[in-house]
UniProtKB/TrEMBL annotation:
<feature type="signal peptide">
    <location>
        <begin position="1"/>
        <end position="21"/>
    </location>
</feature>
<dbReference type="Pfam" id="PF02557">
    <property type="entry name" value="VanY"/>
</dbReference>
<dbReference type="InterPro" id="IPR003709">
    <property type="entry name" value="VanY-like_core_dom"/>
</dbReference>
<feature type="domain" description="D-alanyl-D-alanine carboxypeptidase-like core">
    <location>
        <begin position="86"/>
        <end position="153"/>
    </location>
</feature>
<protein>
    <recommendedName>
        <fullName>D-alanyl-D-alanine carboxypeptidase-like core domain-containing protein</fullName>
    </recommendedName>
</protein>
<dbReference type="GO" id="GO:0008233">
    <property type="term" value="F:peptidase activity"/>
</dbReference>
<dbReference type="GO" id="GO:0006508">
    <property type="term" value="P:proteolysis"/>
</dbReference>
<keyword id="KW-0732">Signal</keyword>
<dbReference type="InterPro" id="IPR009045">
    <property type="entry name" value="Zn_M74/Hedgehog-like"/>
</dbReference>
Length: 202
């Protein structure tokens, strides 16, 4: 892939945490002619095979309708989770748009996000309050969806339990997972942040 194509790709990824900066430096190296396909340019090696693409769950432009049927970020979600989100979106009515800001992610995309978060927050401990490891992430399993905009999150926080959709982390008002029992029992208590979730830390 040429540097020009990489730059175009970078410009299409504003929604991914720090991706533009990371890709920018990578593309710059390509422009200088020092990068070769399959090389190990970055210290972490996460870009050794090229930047994450739509096939890794990247959503060009940052968001896409929950009814999209083409992007792996949407189509590789757990079918039951996606069906619940779409049912809720229809129930919310035409005045509240539901979009996916992040859905299914490949391990490669998750690792990039974790590395970017470590760079942003200064430590792995702090970063893991916001971004799970590829092994643990519910996004990588296809069992979590980040919904926007705020009006949709607000609607789901009030009505989502009826569809089995629950906010899991108090610090992530956009992150929803399927909890079928919520339909009759309500949503479980939230974790303060992902670092308190035994699925991610245990
Ligand atoms: Zn999430």
């Amino acid at each position: 892939m040429g540097a020009a194509a990489l730059l175009v790709t970078a410009l299409m990824l504003p929604g991914i945490l720090g991706a533009a900066a990371a890709l920018g430096s990578w593309a710059g190296a390509g422009a200088g002619g020092t990068h070769t396909a399959g090389g190990t340019h970055t210290a972490g090696g996460s870009f050794a095979q090229g930047a994450p693409t739509a096939a890794d769950g990247v959503i060009a432009g940052g968001s896409v309708s929950v009814f999209d049927d083409t992007l792996p970020a949407v189509t590789k979600l757990d079918p039951a989770l996606l069906a619940a989100v779409r049912t809720a979106a229809r129930a919310a009515g035409p005045d509240i748009r539901f979009v996916v800001n992040s859905g299914w992610r490949s391990p490669k995309l998750q690792e990039q996000m974790l590395q970017d978060a470590i760079a942003q927050y200064g430590s792995r401990t702090e970063a893991e309050k916001w971004v799970a490891t590829p092994d643990a992430s519910e996004h990588v399993k296809g069992e979590a969806i980040d919904i926007g905009p705020w009006a949709a999150d607000d609607w789901l926080s009030r009505h989502g339990a009826a569809y089995g959709l629950c906010q899991i982390y108090a610090n992530e008002g956009w992150h929803f997972e399927l909890r079928p029992k919520a339909k009759t029992q309500g949503c479980p208590a939230m974790y303060a942040d992902p670092s308190h979730d035994p699925r991610l830390t245990g």
